[in-house]
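Q: I have 346 residues here and want to know how they pack in 3D. Can you give me a structure?
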Amino acid sequence: MDELLPYPLLAIVGQPELKTALILGLINPGVGGVLLSGPYGVGKTTAVRALRDIMPMVEREGEAPGAEPRRERMRLVELPLNARLEDVVGGINERVALEQNTLLLEPGILALAHGNMLYVDEVNLLDPAVVDAILDAAAQGRTFVRRGAMTRLYPSRFVLIGSMNPEEGALRPQILDRFGLRVWVAPLDDPRQRLEVYRRAQAFRSDPGALRAAYAAQTAALAEEVETARAILPHVSVPPALEELALALVQALQVPSHRAEIALLEGARARAAADFRNLVSVEDIRRVAPLALRQRHSAQLDEHARRSAEERAAVEAALDALAIPAAAEPPRARRSTVRLIEHDGS
């Protein structure tokens, strides 16, 4: 499909979770990005590239020191699968080094992604060093480049979108946990929908402009809604009762990562903003929960936690069996921080 003319997002047949998750991630970077899993040929990359039509305007710093900020449209930055670590974090400009015998540090893809959307296709096949660099940038919001005595610090805050085919291998737990919303992009079951996929794909190949024109009004309306939702988002709050409901849901599912509730509540805020509301509803929680809470269990981690709890219980039992008394509390003017920590939550 034409790279200059993306396939319209709203022309994608079915896949409501796919479209919803991408829009919520675009509205609220606080959800922590989106991971798309599924076999080849189900529209993962097509959907991500379609977001270029609805990218919001963002404020960027002036190019020169003291220059006025400028507003530009958010961009989609794609990370090539064969990218080297130097391409990702930045490094020495080899052409300038050879031609001018001068060392010049240049920003990498992570710096170019600042304020934009970073798309990593086949994220599970990335070089581990590249994955670590993405994790560092996602956690710290900046990229540090050192080449000998030369150092540079680049801002690097972006919306992270990843896609993968599970048949080619699992994703490292460290980066899997970074994705707030997770979508299983399944092949369509309905023969009529599959036929419609073919017809629209054929129409797009024959005349991309005509198919885009057919969805132009809907796409423009969606772009405006995304822009409006981003403006509403700072004013959207979660009622305390729904905060408690969300936490109860996370605990009922025994999800270990605290990012689960962050993704759930931030996704709910994004959905409320997309619906032009400043208060999260129960329906927001219900709709976002499957996206935020799936794929958050690890059999290995569950087993490790079980063994750790058993070992702690064994230590406590040994202490009791030997009748080792608790240490007497010494006189003190105030309770120390370590004492407060020890009794936190008790």
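Q: Anything worth noting?
A: The chain has 15 helices and eleven strands. The first strand starts at residue 34 and ends at 37.
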